[in-house]
Amino acid sequence: MALTHAAVPDAMMWGWHEGMWNDGHMAGWGVRSWGMMLFGLLWMALLVALPVYLVYWLATRSQSDGSTEDSALAVLEERYARGEIDDDEFERRRARLTPDDDR
């Protein structure tokens, strides 16, 4: 027998007392245990949500950057509708703003 008294764990180590360790396994799920688990889940959610939000923000930001020609054309059409520019000026500026395929 290679086991001696020093190698055999003490009875207090295996939970023969009050506390979280009962009968050699973790049976006492107290308020602190649930709080720690909730805190860990919140951190995991943050680690997932932050990159997802950054990807969403970058995707929506890059889509809105391409609409400058559309907004310029909308302003031109508003000025034409209010009568601030005449037909020739509207056609000249619209030709500059739109590609040849759209005309």
Features of this protein?
103 residues; mainly alpha; rod-shaped
Task: Write the SSE topology.
Layout: E1 21-22, E2 25-26, H1 31-65, H2 68-82, H3 87-97
Antiparallel strand pairs: 1-2
Helix pairs in contact: 2-3
Distance between the termini: 96 Å
Structural class: mainly alpha
**Residues in helices, as a percent range:** 55-70%
Number of helices: 3
Shape: rod-shaped
In which order are the strands of the major sheet placed? Answer: 1-2
Give the overall pLDDT as a whole number: 75
How large is the share of residues in beta strands? under 5%
Q: Uncertain regions: pLDDT < 50 for 5+ in a row?
A: none
Described by strand count, sense and barrel closure, the largest sheet is: 2 strands, antiparallel
What order do the SSEs take from the amino end to the carboxyl end, as H and E? EEHHH
Number of E strands: 2
Rg from C-alpha positions?
Answer: 36 Å
Question: Describe it for me?
Answer:
The protein is mainly alpha-helical. It has helices at 31-65, 68-82, 87-97; strands at 21-22, 25-26. It has a two-stranded antiparallel sheet with strand order 1-2. A hairpin with a 2-residue loop joins strand 1 (21-22) and strand 2. Helix 2 packs antiparallel against helix 3 (87-97). The mean pLDDT is 75.
